[in-house]
Amino acid sequence: MNNSRRRFLKIASLSVFGLGAKGVLDVAAGTTPDAAALTGKYEDGATALKAKRWAMVIDMRKFTSPEDYSRVIEACHSIHNVPSIEGNQEIKWLWTDTYEATFPDDMNPHLSQEVLERRYLLLCNHCENPPCVRVCPTKATFKRADGIVVMDYHRCIGCRFCMAGCPYGARSFNFGDPQPHIKAINPKFPARTRGVVEKCTFCSERLAVGQLPACVEASNGAILFGDLDDPNSPVRKALNENYSIRRKPSVGTQPGVYYIV
Amino acid sequence: MYNGKYIIPGIVIFVGLFTFPFWSNLLTPKYERPQIALPAGEKECIEPVGYMRAEHMHILNLWRDEALREGKRLYVASNGKQWEISLQNTCMKCHANKADFCDKCHNSNSVSPYCWDCHVAPRGNQ
Amino acid sequence: MVEKLLKGSPAYYIWLLFLGSVVGLGGFTYLFQLKYGLAITGMSRDVSWGLYISQFTYLVGVAASAVMLVLPAYFHHYKQFKKMIILGEFMAISAVLMCMLFIVVDMGQPQRMLNVILHPTPNSVMFYDMMVLMGYLFINLLVGWVTLEAERHDVEPPKWIKFFIYLSVIWAFSIHTVTAFLYAGLPGRHYWLTAIMAARFLSSAFCSGPAILLLLVFVLRRLTGFNPGREAVQTLTKIITYAMCINVFFYLLEVFTAFYSGMPGHQHPLVFLFAGHGGHSYWVNGWMWTAVVFAFLSLALLIPPQIRDNEKVLPWALVMLVIASWIDKGLGLLIGGFTPNPFEGITVYAPSVPEILIALGIYAFGLLVLSLLWKIAIEVKKEAGTF
To answer: Where are the transmembrane segments (chain B) (predicted)?
Structure first.
């Protein structure tokens, strides 16, 4: 090809590239004119509840009738659009099981009948040292500074490594579309889609507007919730006055849910 | 040109296909911005209309990350007004008629956001 | 060299067409899974990983096993392996591709898979797994292609390839160690929480991978007359035998630790796998005992040199070894980790038909890639006179 024609083509393509590059760099730096002009600020609401380390104390002695259990579970599952699915692909954020299933490390056949025969409430323990957070490859689940283990459904890729990592079986996976199985949709809260993992969130959206978690409110004082770092919180007071146990202490996760049995 | 009787028609067909978007739009009726149903209540969105039209997805992504990941659920707009960060409870409270507001523009521009796989769409204009 | 895969005998084309149709069937089933979710599999809230991840685990081992040829051939200059080493490298490529596909079909939101790169998380083993698998694929493609090209032109490969060859040796160990770490770092799964998980994975890989390679090479010999050389086969069989002995020994170490210590958390999964629960036996029990019988039978045929070197008996021994290791490292591993569940209960898992069809589709794809790559290698060797 003619030398000057080559030169012309080289300069022309470089110029076109250069012209386009400014636009690309602008977008990359977030300095497109519109975006720079107006940006709001993000803050905590005035009524938001704050803590250094949220924790829960469940006084199992106060759960005496089936209604006590179903009331708290229904409170949680109904406002969070948790589907009711039959079979082993179920989704549960808060549920009940036997003593042996809840505290297998602490089993002894001569425990008092009352303790052995009671049903126990199980949920995500929002551990201090959560294995699920350690293994998540996208930080879709992560620990907030206030101790809550958050689930970001937008980022979850559905690999279920967190489910394998959780020693407490606290996490559920949406094997199919959950929406047909939701009894009555709460329009104030989203549902989830198939292919993501979900679990109890310690009602972080309620804490942000100054409300206690739904199960705590529905429990008539049987479930306490508060800041473990505050010596005057309801949880610390209850733990001071009663003997408490946690699930599977030997795995070192430091769970944030305490049980008074 | 060697094989010219195949190459020239081939080039013509290729140019025709390549410029299809341009001449097909010249031949079909002009794109008209859909008539959308404005919300009944508030007259102003969280930010001015032009900004929202261009950047609503950008703002929604920022809202998503700030609310869910950072735990900051209050938005102080550039005009100082405060809003609760929630697609369902703030945005859709005003834009309750999803079919005549959101979907009209989305459908004609072939945009299908997957937000509604999880987020609960409102049920009509109140 | 790609043009070499385009011309073949009618049987070659029919084979590719057959594989393509199995891939199509698997792909069609996968479309159902994309629409309806993983609900169509046999997985459950308690057994949240199943057939897909088990096959991924086994195939990472097969991919890593190329190192059993590369290390002697390039590091110790064992020339007898040089003839068939390209086949091992190409098998590694096929295996890694299958691994990646098994992960993709297991994901609940596969279109978000780039989130792992967009939001890197160095504390997550799965992040490293993705990186090392991609790296290993690249290394094997590079090394395989460059060395084959050099063979075609009858020259020594360029000097810089040595760096990648040595890197591939270390990388092979690393991909399988990282995969083992996926399991061995989880505090609640007693069957997997063992320090020798990576060692077991590697020993299992180094017997099963070369065994699969040898079986495929025997098929290749029957089809094309390609002879890797008697000494190469015998040396590789010795390596397979030693690795299988270590593999079985390691499993027995697990059994000892569980039962001599008496720790219920360690015993329960083994008891469930081999004897069921509460007097009730499950399909996986027969599966595991088959693995035991085949493992010992294969060793009985591999350890005595006269039987090992008998090429009429060897394929049977290798088939039994592959089945035994596939059961142990595949579904046996997964079911053992998730059963009993964290509540000491039993949730039975069995793969569903759609799950199996998708898995078969991926295997067919792997065989397709293998067939195409080996066709190129064989044609190049014929052209270069090194057949």
So the answer is: 6-23
* Whether residue B78 is found in the same domain as residue B57: yes
Contacts of A180 in chain C (CB under 8 A): none
Is the Cβ of C114 closer than 8 Å to some Cβ of chain A? no
Interface of B with A (CB under 8 A): 46-48, 50-51, 54-55, 58, 62, 64, 66, 68-78, 84-85, 87-89, 114, 117-120, 122-123
A-C Cβ pairs (cutoff 8 Å, strict): 144
- Nearest-neighbour CA in chain A from B73: distance (Å): 6
Domain match, A62 and A118 both: yes
Token output for A119:
């049903």
Q: Is C110 on the interface with A (CB under 8 A)?
A: yes
Is the model's pLDDT at A25 over the cut of 80?
no
Percent of chain C with pLDDT over 90: 97
Nearest Cα residue to A136 out of A155, A161, A167, A172: A161
A174 within some domain:
yes
| CATH number of the domain encompassing residue C229 | 1.20.1630.10
- For the segment C127-178, what is each residue's pLDDT rounded down to a tens digit? 999 999 999 999 999 999 999 999 999 999 999 999 999 999 999 999 999 9
Residue C342: DSSP 8-state: T
Separation in Å, CA of C330 to nearest CA in chain A? 16
Which member of A137, A173, A194 has the closest CB to residue C124? A137
Query: How many domains is chain A partitioned into structurally?
Result: 2
The number of domains in chain B is 2
The span from the CA of A246 to the CA of A52, in Å, is 20
What share of residues in chain B are helix, strand, coil (percent, to 5)? 50, 5, 45
Between chain A and chain B, the number of residue pairs with CB atoms below 8 A apart is 80
In a domain, B2, yes or no: no
What residue numbers bound the domain in which C129 lies? 2-384
pLDDT confidence bin for A32, thresholds 50/70/90: low
DSSP characters over B26-65: HHSPPP----PPPPSS-SS-SS-HHHHHHHHHHHHHHHHI
Judge if A119 and A166 occupy the same domain: yes
pLDDT digits (tens, 9 = 90+) for C181-193: 999 999 999 999 9
From C46, C11, C29, select the one nearest C349 (Cα to Cα): C46
A193 to B66: CB separation less than 8 angstroms, yes or no: no
User: In terms of domains, do B49 and B80 share one?
Assistant: yes
**Boundaries of domain holding B120:** 96-126
Residue B11 inside a domain? The answer is no
| Interval B68-95: pLDDT, tens | 999 899 999 988 889 999 999 999 888 8
Predicted confidence (pLDDT) per residue in A160-210, tens digit: 999 999 999 999 999 999 999 999 999 999 999 999 999 999 999 999 999
Q: Give domain status of residue B105, yes or no.
A: yes
Residue A214, pLDDT score: 96
Which residues in chain B have Cβ-Cβ distances shorter than 8 Å to A186? Answer: 120
A220 with A256, same domain: the answer is: yes
Q: How many residues does chain C have?
A: 387
- Predicted TM-score (pTM) of the model is 0.91
Which of B45, B63, B68, B76 is the best substitution to test chain A (most A C-beta atoms within 10 A)? B68
Into how many domains does chain C fold?
1
In a domain, residue A42? The reply is no
**Contact residues on chain C for A106, CB-CB shorter than 8 A:** none
- Rounded to the nearest 5°, which phi and psi values hold at C303? -70, -45
* Shared-domain flag, residues A7 and A60: no
pLDDT of residue C282: 94
| Mean of all residue pLDDT scores within chain C | 95
A173 bridge partner residues: A197
Domain span holding position A100 = 54-260
Is A109 found in the same domain as A28?
no
The answer on A19 and A101 residing in a single domain is no
Which residue pairs from B79-86 have beta carbons closer than 8 angstroms and sit at least 24 positions apart in sequence?
A: B81/B46, B83/B46, B84/A45, B84/A209, B85/A42
A21 and A100 fall within a common domain: no
Token look-up 């104030």 returns A188
